[in-house]
Amino acid sequence: MPISITWLSHASWLIEVGSVRLMLDPFLTDNPAAINKPSDYRDVNYVLLSHGHFDHLNDVETIALANQAKIVTNFEIANWYAAKGFGENDLPAPLGMNLGGQTKLGEIGLKMVPAVHSSGLPDGSDGGTASGFIVTAESKRIYFACDTTYFSDMRHYAHHVDLAVLPIGDLFTMGIDDCLVSIQRIEPKRVLPTHYNTWPPIAQDAAAWADRVRAETTAEPIVLEVGGSVEV
Question: What is the pTM of this model?
Answer without folding.
Answer: 0.98
